[in-house]
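User: Hi! I have a protein structure encoded as tokens and I'd like to know what sequence might fold into it. I'm fairly new to this, so please keep things simple.
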């Protein structure tokens, strides 16, 4: 007979917990994480270059950057074994405009940077090849 009141109390406690509002993940956080980087065209890239707290990042090899580069870009070679370490030293609060020769390495660099906690990332679609055509 004493077991019945215990079950009743347990049932009431479980019912009370079930009626409590459940914590929901923040949509703004998950939406931001889902769109941490995006491809942009040359016109948009050029416009964004002059915005405050914006860094142009060239992830090509030293041989490629020696031939030509976008003025003001900092260089961190994607193929350098220390790439992640060098990227990790950058300010995550800034906006990064990332480019390579064709947009392939820079998209992978954006992906890596996203995994490291960067959120304001833009990949130059078509890379330096597209830049030279504009």
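Assistant: Happy to help. Inverse folding works backwards from shape to sequence: for each of the 134 positions I chose a residue that suits the local structure. Here it is:
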């Amino acid at each position: 007979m004493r077991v019945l009141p215990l079950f009743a109390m347990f049932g009431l406690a479980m019912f009370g917990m079930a009626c409590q509002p459940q914590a929901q993940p923040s949509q703004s956080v998950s939406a931001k994480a889902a769109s941490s980087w995006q491809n942009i065209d040359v016109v948009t890239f050029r416009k964004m270059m002059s915005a405050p707290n914006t860094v142009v990042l060239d992830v090509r090899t030293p041989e490629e950057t020696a031939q030509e580069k976008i003025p003001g870009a900092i260089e961190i070679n994607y193929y350098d074994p220390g790439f992640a370490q060098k990227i990790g030293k950058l300010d995550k609060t800034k906006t990064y405009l990332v480019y390579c020769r064709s947009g392939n390495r820079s998209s992978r660099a954006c992906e890596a940077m996203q995994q490291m906690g960067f959120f304001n990332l833009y990949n130059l679609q078509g890379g330096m090849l597209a830049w030279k055509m504009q």
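A useful reference point when you look it over: The CA atoms of residues 31 and 56 lie 25 Å apart. Feel free to ask if any position seems puzzling.
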